[in-house]
Amino acid sequence: MKINLKNAKELQKLKGFGTSACWWSHYLKDEKTQDEIAELLYGDSGLKLNIYRYNIGGGTDMENYRVQNPWRRTESMFVYDREKEEGYWDYSLDKTAKDVMRKCLDKGNIDTLIVFANSPHWSQTSTGQASGSLMMHTCNLPKANYRKFADYFLTATQRLIDEGFPVKFVSPINEPQWKWGGSYVWQEGCHYEPEEMAEVMHIFAEEIINRKMDVKLYGPESGEMMGLTPEYLNLLTKDELIMSVMPIFAYHSYHDDNNPKIRVDFKNQLVVPHPELRFDMSEWCELPNKSHTKNFKGALITARIIGQDLIYAGAESWTSWVAINQYSIKEDGFDYSDATLTATDNYEEWYIAERYYGFAHFSKYIPVNSICLDNGFFPDDNNDFNVFSFLTPENKTVTVIVNEGKEEKITLDGVFSKMEVIESTQEYKLKTIYNGEYKSTLTVKENSILTIICEG
Length: 456
What we know:
The protein has helices spanning 31-42, 95-105, 146-162, 194-210, 229-238, 240-245, 260-271, 297-311, 355-363; strands at 2-4, 9-13, 16-20, 51-55, 78-81, 86-89, 112-116, 167-171, 216-222, 248-252, 278-283, 317-322, 324-326, 341-343, 350-352, 371-374, 385-391, 397-403, 408-413, 418-424, 431-437, 441-444, 448-455. By secondary structure, it is α/β, with parallel strands linked by helices.
């Protein structure tokens, strides 16, 4: 199997990798653990991420307790008195989440801070809850409160800026197409019909301009690659005011883990016709999650999706869903937490999940402003062998190989003098298995990930 590196075509430039601080950061109170996790995620010895998503929550007041799991509720800096029908700001609230964010910023690698919301504040919703309407697929934000929501969100954002947090983007809507409500709810959320989504985004654009805020609009965080996503894109790009403050179209690549062709369709139908926009893949985890935290299959799937989203779908950045999730022990005794790290509710126990290493094979070795390369490879129908290549600003060619099948021999068709090969398997992680003169032929073990760095 030959991989063309000599004549690989240059594609888009990468803006980096990130993760979300929702919902884990609010409960990470121990300073030593904060330091350790900040280094694992954003430090030079860890994933070296540069994108941070901070959640502006819908509030944890008693009236909003329809969401039973406290890790799925988010404290707000806005306090509302239902009897007096008035509220006030208490900026001492959400302190732990802000402390964690500052620790991560102190690592020096974050250049993109995004604030986002799953729901408006509970006091602005139809139900008085931030967990969606009582009816499925019904917007929980009355039209009369669209501007109140914008005021709430942007006031919170400005406070973060005033506290020294370098917010670049605001993302007020998250996965508008899903039902978010009904008889069973598990997290904050709010459904918007496409026209409702566009109207809310227009009001946010107006308010950003009127307030002269030095932030840009980001979104609409569509929950899948196709479906309503083309309609969202069409509505947003037709609105000149929105487009004047919205340089990025953000989407999530859920529900198509075994379909690389849909990523090609997404790029051809949405990305290519809109060169004026940057497209960010701003949220993904294995869904439904069939890989427990000790199973290297989770790392293999994560690495495959990262590469396919970047190379085939044209994403300019890639961000995982939550960095840390709760222990989720199933009947087989394994933990099916879907994040890069997993923890008990109070962090008395926590550890690195296998999928962390699938992420690391990209984020540790492919810096911001690297260029995606079309090396001519596309997986067969089994989708179990994938090869992704990148050109770094230091003129190194980095190739990530994800092998979920049998052992394979490959030939790298390139002109280099030096090569380093880093390998992960179920048995060991990020192990340098070769560092020396360039050699074109390599053996890729079954169920392994390789990062190959060529230079000279």
